[in-house]
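Ticket #4471: structure export looks truncated?
Reporter: QA, pipeline team
Priority: medium

Steps to reproduce: submit the single chain below to the structure queue and open the exported record.
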Amino acid sequence: MAKNWAMCVGIDGYDNLPRLKYARRDAELMRDYFLQEARFENVYLFTDNSPDILDTGQPFSSQPTYGKLRRFLRTRFNRPFLGSGDNFWFFYSGHGLRHGDRDYLMPSDSDPHPDGIEDTALPLNWVTERLRRCGADNVVLVLDACRDEQNAKGLGIGEEKQKGVITLNSCSPAERSYEIDDIQQGAFTYALLEALRIQGEGNCATVERLYQRLRYRVSEIAQRYRKPRQTPYAIVEPATKYHLILLPKQATLQDIATLREDAQEAELEGNCELAEQLWTRVLAVSPADPRALKALKRIWSKASISSPQPETQEVELKSERGVDYTRLRDLLAAGKWKEADQETAKVMLQAANREEAGYLRVEDIAIFPCDDLRTIDRLWVKYSNGKFGFSVQKKIYQSLGGTRGYNEKIWDAFGDRVGWRDKERWLYYNDLTFDLKAPSGHLPVLRVSRHLSSFVFGIGSVEYCACLFFRIETCEV
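Actual output as written to the record:
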């Protein structure tokens, strides 16, 4: 059975923004629905007076300040804890704004001044990047933001597309999201809970039906209570997930049939990752569905054939520059990872004819001999059983959206993924983990400094690594 987890954030008390009335109550009501009615396995609650979170191995304060929310998202979502077919819901009720072409969620202590936003608000794309690390196939963002009725200037959030995420926004970017005194809730959250509870005909089991229901119902509520126009809208990526079944117990046979068609189409188009997610959702509703079972076996069989496998044969020690790779091979075979990493730096300098200089330049990497690059990478992949190697790092970097250009968020995410950063601090060389317990892609380290003992990863490294990953492609490693 698919698992469902959630995180609910509701903020009434702001230090530097107008106080809200019902954001905390909305978050608490969503928490109650998830746990008591939808039977979610776990829900994390962050409000002005919520208790500490105690089930994560270390206690977390659940007060919705910038530092505490960021610490929780960074630490709790550091590694996967959900899997294929699972869902993670993120509900946010509070202030949000758009600044510098980016969407931001505003914690309780955010500074809305243009000079303070980037240091005290949470970029929405960073939040979704952290949430996706939970391992769930589907991340559902439900954002009841843009609630400042006293400020009619500027745009609300919702312009950014969050890759691979289902986003339900409480209002269009040029509108506001309103609280209704008569019902003591935000109009959007009131309509959302109402829609999620519908049974039988007209239920909102799929993303598409939930969205359509919210579109007309929120507008209806706003009009009834004499508020300006408020029109929810969704950004669903990929668009196929409009047919995704969010509430399996309320789904109809037609919902399952539509989902099957989408899964088959995704598979025919060669998008096996999406097809696997959709077929898994079919099984969540119909556990013995024969088409889904056959399709998943077919997809997994293809994946096992096409997935890169660690080298099983001896690696031919080719070199265009006459470099001897025997010692590197022997160090890797013996599991001496630190010595092997330092030997890698040595042989790369030899292959690039940079021994006297003692470090590599970007231009050296751009023309690095392909035979030597293949030999180095294949040795690392073989003796680490596919865990280490430049080609492994390249796949991780590109999976995060990395290109040859510098993007701070992507580079930081890459550093987090391969274990080159810890608690937002780039590590020194001697702080790395030189064994197989390290994250995938942790080794080898591209040498860009004369002094490895004092080497610090960071902005200066991204140009070198991006150039190396591009060279790997041109050399067909």
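Status: closed, not a bug. The export was complete when the record was re-opened. Leaving a note from the reviewer for reference: The domain at 326-474 is CATH 1.10.10.1770 (Arc Repressor Mutant, subunit A).
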